[in-house]
Design brief:
Layout lengths: L5 E5 L3 H13 L3 E5 L5 H8 L3 E5 L7 H9 L6 E5 L4 H9 L4 E4 L4 H16 L10 E3 L2 E4 L4 E4 L2 E2 L4 H12 L5 E2 H8 L8 H19 L5 E4 L3 E4 L1
Parallel strand pairs: 1-2, 1-3, 3-4, 4-5
Antiparallel strand pairs: 6-7, 7-8, 8-9, 10-12, 11-12
Helix pairs in contact: 1-5, 6-7, 6-8
């Protein structure tokens, strides 16, 4: 990440977007604004912002769809803005990889503070993992290529799913606690809930099951965590 973090604000209400941009720029951030969802994913691919503030309800393409697509190729921190406070939207957002939520109306100072905290954690991210291949049974991960093969076919994983599998496959049979998996999967030490890890494991198990058929490698240990065996 560069010394001047680049923040992308995707918000269809111009006044809100401009208010956030003004506060963020006062803190020394570079800010780009998009008022529609279409084109947001392409912007992230090309410009690679350091942080995304993403409205849930957007014209063209909604925030959850954007979050899902971005998580397919990037682990850039994402904060979602929403006027809908029901629990379903929150859980769906976390399942797709959102890092934080702010409900409207909000304090722009609070948003800026949260952004600064998460960016500080990202900047302190540890060195990259060993790029050597890791394998167990007929599953292999290649950290240097961000690739997973299972049952003779390529399996597309999100960044968090990949790190989860990488951790589990590094020590087959070892039971990893949820806290340990959080630390290994979110290298910037962002705060997530146990339920978020459970959801990522559920999605990872489903993808491996589709590739491996009836063979089940991921196991949950009640009250403790998960293991690959």
């Amino acid at each position: 990440m560069v010394d001047t973090p680049h923040i992308l604000v995707v918000e269809d209400e111009p006044k809100i977007a401009q208010l956030l941009a003004d506060y963020l720029r006062r803190e020394g951030h570079e800010v780009s604004i998009l008022n529609v969802g279409s084109g947001a994913v392409e912007f992230v691919r090309e410009r690679r912002p350091d942080f995304i503030i993403l409205d849930l309800m957007l014209p063209g393409v909604d925030g959850l769809t954007i979050c899902r697509e971005v998580r397919g190729f990037s682990d850039v921190p994402i904060m979602m803005l929403t006027a809908r406070v029901d629990e379903i939207d929150r859980l769906v957002g976390l399942e797709l990889g959102a890092d934080d939520y702010v409900c409207k109306p909000f304090s722009p100072r609070e948003v800026v503070t949260r952004v600064k905290i998460i960016l500080r954690r990202v900047k302190a991210r540890p060195a990259e993992v060993d790029p050597n291949q890791l394998s167990y049974r007929n599953v292999s991960v290649f950290p240097d290529r961000f690739q997973c093969d299972a049952g003779g076919q390529s399996v597309e994983l999100t960044p968090v799913e990949f790190r989860l599998l990488q951790a589990l496959i590094s020590r087959p049979g070892h039971v990893f606690s949820r806290d340990r998996l959080m630390a290994l999967s979110y290298a910037d030490s962002r705060i997530v809930s146990d339920r978020t890890i459970d959801t990522h494991i559920k999605n990872l198990r489903k993808k491996l099951h589709q590739a491996l058929g009836e063979e089940e490698l991921l196991h949950s240990i009640y009250g403790v965590g998960y293991k690959l065996e």
